[in-house]
């Protein structure tokens, strides 16, 4: 009898330990997928939804995925959950929009989804009703997503690439599966599907997600794998500082990833070919915008970034050859100079560098000339910045968007 009781006790303890391990693994899956980052509104409860996403088709409000039965997913089964995550179909048959990146999550393994579900079942229920979308007609007709899925969605599980290392394949899985990097960094077609060349940069929510292939100078071709790891782990490195939506991704996701997974991501990105893009001709040094921009740079920027544009290692990022400066769109630069920026606080770098706002000091034309100068000095080559674009972003910042 004692032997039977002991066996039952051991079996119960083993089951509890296994459940705990699966829940912990699921919490890590939520980190990889940045689930809390999207499903938590500013100042809101974790996973209770309410965050507003701006899309070309209108605004969407991210839903509640806590275990509340009335307003969350408390009444869902694991099968319901898998269908939503992998196929973009909710429990009641409603089609989801690809703002919930099921085109990437479809690649996730059964084990990872089971772990994620086990973790979400432990999340505290929050009663928070969310009106999911405010899209314009006809985009607010969810039934149309059946046609979109037929045209653009390919349900598939991740399959390792033969001839590549286990580390490379892990990086491929993370980037293209739970990490859904292409959701931001891949340009979209007119109908919101991924463009033909992945990870080559895209505009979203007033920011430009830069190219992250091994391209030079626009991508991470000038970065080492260790540089990429440092950026994802701390939010900054000797080349760049994460800002805008990427700062949130670092804080809530990549900063909490294991070093092994970060290295795998870096190895994979360093092996991604660049798109064949025509080079932008440099703005001539005798152009009036360059002359005015040089004076503005000397009066406002030299102290930190240096006359040679090389910055100060681990304090102020270089401007010479900086891929953020050389993207096709200067949106990020304009926002940072107007609003200022501060590196996120992460365990690896609790206190990061910052930059003050110059909105009070520079008018639209001056800021355009300044950025035209830094995008075309020290061998940099990029299109000039217009005062109209600066004015548009300044207005957007004032309105809080």
What report would you give on this structure?
The protein is mainly alpha-helical and 401 residues long. It folds into three domains: 133 residues; 87 residues, no CATH class; 111 residues, Cytochrome c-like domain (Cytochrome Bc1 Complex, Chain D, domain 2, Orthogonal Bundle). Helices cover 40% and strands 5% of the residues. The protein is built from 16 helices and seven strands. It has a three-stranded antiparallel beta sheet with strand order 1-2-3, with no helix packed on it. A two-stranded antiparallel ribbon has the order 4-5. A hairpin with a 2-residue loop joins strand 1 and strand 2. Helix 1 packs across helix 5, helix 14 crosses helix 16 and helix 15 crosses helix 16. The longest helix is centred in the N-terminal third of the chain and has 31 residues. The model has no long low-confidence stretch (mean pLDDT 89).
